[in-house]
Amino acid sequence: MQRIIVLLLIISFNNHAQIESNLDEVYPIFPVCKLLPDNKQNQCFDESMFEHIEKNFKYPKTAWDLNLESQVRIRFNINQNGEVDNIKANAAVVGISFIEKEALKAAESMFEVAAANILRTLPKMIPAKKGGEAFDKTFQVTVEYKIPNQLDYDEIDKAPTFPGCENIEVEKSKECFEKFINNHINKNLKYPKRALKNNIEGDVFIQFEITRDGYFINFYTVGPDKILEDEAYRIMSKLPAVKPGEYLGKKVNVLYGLPISFRLK
Known about the structure:
Layout: E1 9-10, H1 16-21, E2 25-26, H2 41-56, H3 61-65, E3 69-78, E4 84-94, H4 101-120, E5 129-130, E6 133-134, E7 137-145, E8 150-152, H5 173-188, H6 193-197, E9 202-210, E10 216-222, H7 226-236, E11 245-247, E12 250-262
Parallel strand pairs: 8-12
Antiparallel strand pairs: 1-7, 2-5, 3-4, 3-7, 5-6, 9-10, 9-12, 11-12
């Protein structure tokens, strides 16, 4: 169950202070970092580790279906051969209480296995060195499994559903959503008289949130003049309530934005 969002990944490296105090100690080197100068290796390691976790992150399906969230702390070594070993994961399930200890252990185990598997797929590296000799280097990362409350429109699977789009296939839900929006704008747009009188034209970008209850809230506009911004808001605030957007079967708040063009003929 993929969820590639930076907010879901928290990576903390606790070794920088030690390395700065010991100039003879050298970080492990990722294969992609080999050609970089020595003073860029630490940064490249951190960035490569983050990218690896982001790329290989998978939300346990059962945990996703049960709305379980967790923070998993993982300690691991990069040994003298540049391989990952001694992986120890410790999960803290949040947002829910378990009456049965066995149920809690099962939930923790789901997250611990998923997080540990991310680290097991790390590539072989050039090992850390101290005084020119390779040695086992210990790291700690924290991976957060969090069910999103709000997503951008391009991240969701199923668009919010307007009347008339109920029976549309999921793959075409965004097409129907956008078509309804465009028709709504064309039907309701009225060029403000004051804007006509003062030759004001341009594009207004309007952004808003569509809640899990299907309502439109938190409008934000940017345009060449407040007169046009007010008209853009008036148009979009008249949109009817919808069935909420979905991501992997869950209702989510959706952030959506678009430009509305005002042109003098």
